[in-house]
Design goal:
The chain has 139 residues and is an alpha+beta fold. Helices cover 24% and strands 35% of the residues. The protein is built from 2 helices and 6 strands; from the N terminus they run αββββαββ.
């Protein structure tokens, strides 16, 4: 299910004209900005499994990176806010990720957090934004 959900999430994100690079795996270096990675979230969801209804909740992290040294902090953050609005609108319009979970679940975007230096670790030249996509699926 993870592969199907990540692929369907990437298909939606790929429709954004605001992103220059989109990857369905984690990476930290990019050729062009803004860039995006899509992967299972680093969260432990105590509600992942509801065995009585055979329901699973998958959380996918969509992380958008923007270079900030040339753009400036305020412009870099503005770019990320525009992308966040664009992606949330796209997922609101496609709660079934195409036909991936149609008839057996839904996907809901959840705005995450801005990740700025020094929290951005060894990459102080970028600022990032995370959006979480909560996918509830009846198996």
């Amino acid at each position: 299910m993870w592969d199907d959900l990540v692929a369907a999430t990437k298909a939606v994100v790929d429709t954004s004209t605001l992103l220059h690079e989109v990857f369905d795996y984690r990476r930290r270096t990019f050729d062009k900005y803004p860039a995006c990675t899509i992967s299972p979230a680093d969260t432990v969801d105590p509600l992942f499994a509801d065995t009585s209804r055979n329901q699973r909740t998958y959380v996918i992290a969509i992380t958008v990176y923007q270079e900030r040294l040339d753009q400036g902090d305020s412009n870099a953050e503005r770019i990320l806010r525009q992308i966040a609005d664009d992606l949330i609108t796209k997922f609101d319009a496609d709660p079934y990720l195409g036909n991936t979970i149609a008839g057996r679940g839904y996907a809901k975007p959840i705005p995450g957090a801005f990740i700025a230096p020094p929290d951005n670790g060894e990459y102080p030249d970028t600022i990032a934004l995370q959006i979480f996509l909560e996918c509830v699926v009846i198996q």
